[in-house]
Amino acid sequence: MATIERNLRKERIGKVVSNKMEKSVTVAVERRMKHAMYGKFVAKTTKFMAHDEKNECNPGDLVKISETRPLSKNKRWRVVEIIERAK
């Protein structure tokens, strides 16, 4: 077999919406896509539960999250870095 490339994990950048849980945050990732019929760009938002080991994320922070193994029922992402703090 040829060498198989590993660690091709998805990464997303989004805004922290909630940090009310212990070591977990909810991140909203917005993507803009063109409407099929009207051609207008529409914003679609998806929420991800992400693991925040040190509890250092606050609502409004811009963070990079990465796909990981299932950590709980809903958590399949982890916070890689905080790009920008909330003002």
Automatic annotation (TrEMBL):
NCBIfam families: PRK05610.1, uS17_bact. One of its GO terms (biological process) is translation. Gene3D superfamilies: Nucleic acid-binding proteins (2.40.50.140). The keyword Oxidoreductase does not apply. The lineage of its organism: Bacteria, Pseudomonadati, Bacteroidota, Cytophagia, Cytophagales. Belongs to the universal ribosomal protein uS17 family. One of the primary rRNA binding proteins, it binds specifically to the 5'-end of 16S ribosomal RNA. GO terms for molecular function: rRNA binding; structural constituent of ribosome. Part of the 30S ribosomal subunit. SUPFAM superfamilies: Nucleic acid-binding proteins. InterPro entries: NA-bd_OB-fold (IPR012340), Ribosomal_uS17 (IPR000266), Ribosomal_uS17_bact/chlr (IPR019984), Ribosomal_uS17_CS (IPR019979). GO terms for cellular component: cytosolic small ribosomal subunit. This is Small ribosomal subunit protein uS17. Keywords: Ribonucleoprotein, Ribosomal protein, RNA-binding, rRNA-binding.
